[in-house]
Structures are given as structure tokens and as C-alpha cells.
Design goal:
Length: 408
């Protein structure tokens, strides 16, 4: 919903600029998407399968030159119809044989089936199956209506807790609590700058320990319930938690985050079980021979080795995005932690968990498949100029080595 809100804002900016330049009335504007996504449980979000016709259902908005009023059409439109529609609206002749037809020429025929090939695999769906999902009804049931984007929540059995005061002393703490830990490094929460335009508001972390899929997780930020979410399986081997912390609950400087299992008894009683959070910081010594963590562990740097490659470094406003992969090239398995420094100053850290089949193939190691990482770190825009980055991987034995950086 936040992505839709951002898109809506950007479309408003586009329309405003076209009007300012005096070309809006004469403009042909087409808005669509390359694919949809699934909102059905236990289905891939965007991968094509025999059950996943939802990902073929995409939006299509067209503003014709000179058009003043809009309308909703139930025509069986396809993205194949976009090119001939553009040609017809702009009076452009073409000699190609096109599969689609102009959407405004009255030439559309009813569609009974949709057939396509994806990565050499054939799929076939009935038209009714593609368009059956009542997205607006689903949206109304799933999200709170008519709320500012900062207050949007997913309706579930505990969503009414969000925004309420949180005092752990008023809850029963389970003595037989499962032991678990979030692997995401949440250190940026301890030093928030509200002026830079970036907030570390996304929890998207693997959770390890005594964890069951479907377990409820409660996150409290600065004395308020900030999110309630369920543990889900990203694949058979890993369990994850994803949650968005509301912007209004952040404060300048240090922010206090607490995460718990939310347990409910058969009698409706509720208990909490604390979950360990990773928020370590790191320091590299002056001669770059070792890295020390805030927990006191010292990691010697093997300067003769490299523990992977950084594919992308992008500074944008108040954030720095870094993506790549990192493995212990001797053991051929992912490192435990990737640590990012600029001019010797610690910026942020993460743990590789993303799939990289290319790395697994290159090193002939199935373990290396989970060596990918992508992290967004808060930075001041002034600091983005001339950043001298050093990025290290720390393996399971506590040794560190640099990652190759992309050429400038």
C-alpha cells in the first residue's frame, strides 16, 4: 500500500509537470505494469505457476489526447493491445502484423483463454481465472480504509494493538519461552537522524532458534506497539519476519526496539517471550589488521584474501544501497556478517541470506546459494560525496576479508 501511495504521488508530479509545460491536454499517457503479484497464501509472489494466474492481472490506465473525462472499461484488454493503441491514437502507420488491436477501435474480440511461455515452460489459463480476483474487495478486507499511509496496517487478530502503549511489566512473561534471535542488524535504530529523509523502518529478518511458522511476533518501538506479524517460511530451511514500523513512532537519536513472541493460551490469556535482537557495531583499527565488534570479539583481517564481490553501490538522498555476495572462498559457504565502513567509520552491517545461484554454480557449492545480500544504510547526503568505502565479510571462524568493489 505504501508503494501504491508513492506511485500515486509520482503520477501527480508527472501530471503537474505536463500541465506546467502546457502539453498535458495533447499528451497520450499509458500506465501499466510488467506483471502483477499473488496475494494468495502459499503461492509465489510473482513467479509463474499453473495456479498463479494472479500475476497476469495488471493495471492499465490510458489518457487519450484531448480527453476530458474518464471511464472504466470492462474490455478484455491485454498488454499486446498497447502498441496498436498508441499507433492509432497518434495516427502512426505501421506495416507489421501485430497480435493486439487498438482498444478504442471496437475491434476487440472476447478472450476465452490466455496462453504464454515463460522460460520455455507453457502455461494456459481461462480468461475468467486471470480476472477473477476481486482486488478492491480484498484490499478493503485486508487493509484499514481511509487511513493516512503512515497509519495503514494489515487487519489481523492483533492489529488493534498497534499504536497502543506498551509496558512489558504489564504483561506476563512466559517462563517456558522459546529461544530465538533476529539476524538482521538493527543498529541503525540506535542513531536515527530524522532530517536525512531515511528511516530504518523495515524489519525483514531471518529468525533462528525454536521458531514455528505462524508464530506471532510483537515489535514495540519507544513504548508503543509498532507492529504485529507472523513468522513465515521463505523456503524449507529458513523462517522470516517482515514488518514495517510506523514513521510517527520514531524519534531523533536512540530508538528503543523490543521484539517478543506473542503467545495466547486456550483461555485467551496473552503472554510475551523475548526475542534477541542483533544491534552490534564494528570498528576497524588504524592499520586495518583487525575489526572489533561492540560485543568484544576481535576479527583479524586476511588482507591476502577476498570474500566476495559488491555488485551495486548507490547513494541516494539519505541512504546508501549496497548489494553483492560474500562467501569464505576456502570453505565455499556464506560469511556470517558483511560490515560496511566509510573512511574507517562504521556505517551498517548485514548477514547474507539472499539466493545467488550463479555463485553456487561458480564455486560448485550448494551452500553458496544463500550468499547474496542487499542492505540500505542511512547516511547524510553530504557524506555521500567522495565516500571511501571498505566492505568486509566475517566468516564463521571469526576471520575477515575485504570484498571486491565495483570499478568507479
Amino acid at each position: 500500500m505504501l508503494q501504491v501511495g508513492l506511485l500515486d504521488r509520482k503520477l501527480g508530479e508527472l501530471v503537474a509537470q505536463l500541465k506546467e509545460k502546457g502539453v498535458y491536454d495533447d499528451a497520450l499517457i499509458v500506465i501499466t505494469a510488467d506483471h502483477g503479484r499473488s496475494f494468495t497464501r502459499n503461492r509465489p509472489l510473482r513467479r509463474m505457476t499453473d495456479e498463479n494466474a494472479e500475476v497476469l492481472h495488471v493495471p492499465l490506465f490510458i489518457k487519450r489526447p484531448g480527453q476530458k473525462d474518464g471511464q472504466v472499461s470492462e474490455a478484455p484488454a491485454s498488454t499486446l493491445d498497447i502498441l496498436p493503441t498508441i499507433a492509432a491514437e497518434l495516427g502512426i502507420d505501421y506495416s507489421w502484423n501485430l497480435d493486439g488491436a487498438s482498444l478504442f477501435a471496437g475491434e476487440l474480440k472476447g478472450r476465452e483463454r490466455v496462453s504464454l511461455s515463460v522460460r520455455d515452460e507453457r502455461f494456459d489459463f481461462s480468461w475468467d481465472e486471470v480476472v477473477r480476483l476481486p482486488l478492491l474487495d480484498w484490499q478493503a478486507r485486508t487493509f484499514t480504509l481511509r487511513k493516512p499511509l503512515d497509519e495503514v496496517t494489515i487487519n489481523n487478530r492483533y492489529s488493534k494493538l498497534i499504536g497502543s502503549d506498551f509496558d512489558p511489566h504489564s504483561w506476563e512473561i512466559a517462563s517456558d519461552a522459546p529461544k530465538a534471535r533476529l539476524l538482521q542488524n538493527l543498529q541503525p535504530l540506535t542513531n536515527v537522524d530524522l532530517k536525512i529523509g531515511f528511516l530504518p523502518a523495515v524489519i525483514d529478518s531471518e529468525i533462528v532458534g525454536e521458531v514455528s511458522s505462524g508464530s506471532w511476533i510483537l515489535a514495540a518501538l519507544n513504548g508503543k506497539v509498532a507492529a504485529v506479524a507472523q513468522v513465515y517460511e521463505k523456503d524449507e530451511a529458513t523462517k522470516y519476519v517482515s514488518a514495517l514500523l510506523p514513521e510517527r513512532l520514531f524519534r531523533e537519536g536512540s530508538n528503543s526496539l523490543e521484539v517478543y513472541f506473542l503467545l495466547e493460551g486456550e483461555d485467551g490469556s496473552r503472554r510475551l517471550a523475548p526475542i534477541e535482537i542483533e544491534a552490534s557495531t564494528f570498528e576497524v583499527n588504524a592499520d586495518r589488521t583487525s575489526i572489533t565488534s561492540s560485543r568484544g570479539s576481535v576479527h583479524p583481517i586476511a588482507n591476502e584474501m577476498r570474500f566476495g564481490i559488491v555488485d551495486i553501490i548507490r547513494a541516494d538522498g539519505g541512504s546508501l544501497r549496497v548489494s553483492g555476495w560474500s562467501i569464505d572462498t576456502n570453505a565455499k559457504r556464506p560469511v556470517e556478517t558483511v560490515v560496511i565502513f566509510s573512511d574507517g567509520k562504521f556505517i551498517c552491517a548485514t548477514s547474507p541470506r539472499m539466493p545467488r545461484p550463479d555463485v553456487a554454480k561458480a564455486y560448485k557449492s550448494p551452500e553458496a546459494n544463500s550468499s547474496g545480500f542487499s542492505i540500505v544504510c542511512p547516511i547524510h547526503e553530504a557524506d555521500a560525496e567522495g565516500m571511501k568505502l571498505k566492505i568486509y565479510g566475517i566468516n564463521g571462524e571469526g576471520r575477515a576479508a575485504e570484498l571486491h568493489l565495483p570499478r568507479a
